[in-house]
Each structure stands twice: as C-alpha cells, then as structure tokens.
Amino acid sequence: MADPSQDVTLVSQVLAGDKRSFTQLVDTHKNKIYGLLRGLGASPQDAQDYTQEAFLRAYRKLAGFREESNFASWLYAIAVNVMKDAGRRKKPEPVEADVLIRVQHHHTETPESAYLRKETGGEVQQLLQQLPDKYRIVLLLRYTNELSYDEIAAIAGIEVNQVRASQFRVLKTWIRRATGAWRCLNLRIPYVFIVF
Predict the structure, then answer these.
(1) CA distance linking residue 128 with residue 147, whole number of Å
(2) Which residues contact 55 (CB under 8 A, 6 or more apart)?
(3) pTM for this entry
(4) Thinking of the domain 97-194, which architecture would CATH place it in?
(5) pLDDT in tens, 147-180
(6) Mean pLDDT score, 80-88
(7) Structural domain spans, the chain
(8) What is the DSSP annotation of 136-157?
(9) Which class would CATH give 4-86?
C-alpha cells in the first residue's frame, strides 16, 4: 500500500505546479484502482476508461483534497462514483480465478496445497461474482486494498458498523455454501486475499 504521507507530499507538489508529481500518484495507485473496478464487474476496457476518468476527476478536484484525509481512500471513492455515474454496468464480467484470488500459503507449496489453492480460487471467484455490489465493494476494499473499516465506510457511504456487518454476513454465507476444497481447508476464510 502507498505511503499516505508521501501521497500528501505529492499532492502538495502538484498544487504548487509540479505536474510530474501527479504522474507519480497515478503510477502508485492505477493498478489498485483498475483492480477494484474489475472486481466490481467492469470489463477490462471499461475498467481502463473508468480508471482514467477517476484520475482526471481527482486532478480537477485536487484543490478540494484535505491533507488529513487518506488520498488512496479519496481516490477509491472517486473511482466507485465514476463507475456508478457511467451507468453502463449491465452484468458483471467474470474475472479469471487465478487473476482474482489467491489463498495465503507458505513459501514452500506442496502439490496438494497448490491443487487446493486452484480449486478454492474458482469457488471464491464464483461466490464473489454473485455478491451484490454493496457487499463486494466491502470485501474488495478490505482484502485487496487492506483498508480500515473507517476508510471503507467513507468510500462506500455507509456506517462503520455496516461495513463490519456486511463482511461478517458474506463470510458466514460463504461458510454455509462452501463445498469441495474449502471443506478440506477448514474454511480459513480470513486467510483468503483477493489480489489483482
């Protein structure tokens, strides 16, 4: 995750006229923004377009950014709003499981654990695609971007207790629906991380 203090420094430099600093901000955050949008169901092309539009909006609104805020969280909120504003989202586009999910494992992976990781990746990806946006965004921001509950609440426009409840509901549902390889793993869902 990007260093928030460095983000604030770069924002200050951009506001002082150094446009190259904005390029650094883009380079630091573009993959996370793109991954979030793909996880929310945007096609690869739409995710690229939305990512670009999010950075354009952020640049235009940079003077309104409060230094005590987290730049990454502010940018995620802009990206989510860009996607909502686009109104083109008809049906989430599936993302390949090996791109979307990996299960935390030790440095030495046995063939058995590699098989289980591959099996669970497909299952989790399928479950993730079935989630309503309000739950999917909570999981993506929590496990992909490692944001705090407070940051997720600010981005999603909900209360912190709703973020926790959403996460709990989804994980509880996944435990009930788990089949196959998940049962072999004793459903260590907190160890599942979504990566792009």
Answers:
(1) 18
(2) 26, 30, 33, 75
(3) 0.67
(4) Orthogonal Bundle (1.10)
(5) 889 989 888 888 999 999 988 888 887 777 665 5
(6) 83
(7) 4-86, 97-194
(8) HHHHIIIIIS---HHHHHHHHT
(9) mainly alpha
